[in-house]
Design goal:
This protein is of the alpha+beta class and 224 residues long. The protein contains 8 helices and 8 strands, in the order H-H-H-H-E-E-H-H-E-E-E-E-H-H-E-E. The two termini are 41 Å apart.
Length: 224
Amino acid sequence: MVTILIRTLLVYVLLLVTMRLMGKRQLGELEISELVTTLLISEIASLPIADPNIPVMHAVIPLVTILTLEITLSVILLKCPRLKNVVSTRPSVLIRRGVPDQKELRRVRISIDELISEVRQSGVSTLADVDYAILEQNGKISIIQKKQALPPSAKDLNIILKESGVIHALIEDGTVNTYTLQLLGRDRSWLDAELSKKQKRAQDLFFLGIDDANEFYTVEKDKA
C-alpha cells in the first residue's frame, strides 16, 4: 500500500511539472498535436500506478521524452510556420460576408444546424447578421458580427468613458495576496492604511479588490 502511494505521488508530481513546462495552452482547447501528447501522457502515467511490477522509470523516461519532443516541435513550428499545416489543421471560413460556404461546411463535416447552433450560442439570432464564422485550429468557431448588427458603442455615440481596466485581488477569504501587492507596486503598509480608512480588517473580508482606476470592491465575510 505504501509503495503504491509513493509511486502515485512521484508520477503525480512528475505530471504536474511536465504540464507546467508545456505551458497554459496545453490546459485549454487542444490542437491535434497537443491532443496526441495529452493522450500519451495520461496513458503512460497510469501504467506504473496500476501495475506495481512496472518500474517508475518506465514512465519517467517516456514522459521526459514526450516533453522534449513537444517543446522542440513548438520551437520548430515557431521558426517555420509553414510546417504547422503538416501537424495541425488550418482555420476554415464557414461563413464569408454573411454567406455560408457550403463546400467548406461539407469538407469539415459541419451541418447547417450545427452552424446555426454555434451562431445562437454566440448571441447572434440570425445568419444574416454574421459577417464571418471561422472554425479555428482548436475546434472552436469564432463568430464575427456585421457592424450594422452591433449595438452602438460609446465611441459611436461620442461618449468618453473612464477606463477601469481589470480588478486585482488584494484579499481573498481574509488572506492578503502579497503577489498582487507586488504586481501593483504596493506594500502591506499601504493596504493597512486603506483598510484603516474604511474601518475594515483583513480577516473580516471575504474579498477586497481594486481596479486600474483605483476603485475598490469589497465583500465582507458572512457573519455565520
